[in-house]
Amino acid sequence: xxxxxxxxxxxxxxxxxxxxxxxxxxxxxxxxxxxxxxxxxxxxxxxxxxxxxxxxxxxxxxxxxxxxxxxxxxxxxxxxxxxxxxxxxxxxxxxxxxxxxxxxxxxxxxxxxxxxxxxxxxxxxxxxxxxxxxxxxxxxxxxxxxxxxxxxxxxxxxxxxxxxxxxxxxxxxxxxxxxxxxxxxxxxxxxxxxxxxxxxxxxxxxxxxxxxxxxxxxxxxxxxxxxxxxxxxxxxxxxxxxxxxxxxxxxxxxxxxxxxxxxxxxxxxxxxxxxxxxxxxxxxxxxxxxxxxxxxxxxxxxxxxxxxxxxxxxxxxxxxxxxxxxxxxxxxxxxxxxxxxxxxxxxxxxxxxxxxxxxxxxxxxxxxxxxxxxxxxxxxxxxxxxxxxxxxxxxxxxxxxxxxxxxxxxxxxxxxxxxxxxxxxxxxxxxxxxxxxxxxxxxxxxxxxxxxxxxxxxxxxxxxxxxxxxxxxxxxxxxxxxxxxxxxxxxxxxxxxxxxxxxxxxxxxxxxxxxxxxxx
Length: 520
Known about the structure:
The protein is of the alpha/beta class. Helices cover 38% and strands 17% of the residues. It contains 17 helices and 14 strands. The strands form 2 sheets. Strands 1, 2, 3, 4, 5, 6 and 7 form a 7-stranded antiparallel beta sheet that branches. It has a 7-stranded mixed beta sheet with strand order 9-8-11-12-13-10-14, with helices on both faces. Helix 12 packs parallel to helix 14 and helix 14 crosses helix 15. The chain starts with a helix and ends in a 31-residue tail after the last helix.
């Protein structure tokens, strides 16, 4: 074969190849459909490229509910669920573009799944990108199900629905929303919000429901009962209250010094309400109050807990108004017959009092959780001592000396006594308790006492009718700069971190004189 003959053969083969490419493009242009579009058109009995698409945006934490509801509608038919080929391009394309596109790679393929939590210890494989072919009331419907994909600019999950009849789509969506509520994995759970990796929106995390019996709560007589009656009792008597024309929604404010048991009280309320949906917001997660209120409204009866609300009360989130007002608006936006309880805790009620008073009725019960008096301290010391061989007289004497302390102090005291005995490989006794108490009450441990929530009996106590002073951290509002400084300086036990504007100190125990009785 000569060189000229070889060149002619190459040119002829290339010309034949290009003719086939052009012919295939003409065929594709004639139908206007991708392979996926052909499959959808055959199922719907109409040209899918000519049908409208209805989009339903979902918070990504509702994708599991949508997956369960759609699986209920499709049943066990394996042909009812398809994946989509096309690489990364499919994530940037709408259902209309997947059906009719000059890009030929969109066709039926494997389904994309992702693992999603359905409880504190359970997960479910949900469709993160896939097409469902469903028959609803005898009519065919195509549903593209996709998870949120922040890295591709999609911050919410989405369903894209296509059918021949617009009314069929409307009826389908109404039925689907009902199924999502009926089968929701959120109902009856203890939930919290976490910031997503890409900073847009928030994800749900499931928490174990705490187990805190009433015996573990050491408060003055009547306080726990008052709180429980308002938060739990109203829900238990909902029928009687509604029959009498009374509203169910309620707001409760627990205030007091750090470490007095506000968080433990909240945990007790959650433990006493199994099957009740609870949303716990603390610190920066309080900015998700709107989403929390929506969950509470949808899955009532429910409880929304906002811990240490004073630390972010004046922070501004998505609106010009302070975050506290967003919380109050969320409470005000509930219908009167909504069985929803908002429980707020604060160490600095003076930050909130004026704003709450200016919007009366949002909070209908405010309860001070005080520092334990002598009777409560004796109970705390006995509780944390458990079965350790301390004498009742030694525990009572320690409780008398430890005025102004919290449960956190009592817990640390017992641990130090046990540690002292363990270091000398001996059994703990009353002397270990006395020495540990002397150490904790010494001048050198003043910061430790403050961090344990202790204050001296002479420290001023806030009164609701007192007008706040003009100091930088006083008044009804506090800047986030000042709040952050408070958070950095102090923390509280019995729960999550907390702040306090007032210095908390305990007076050091004076040295006994020569003729003073030996302390117990």
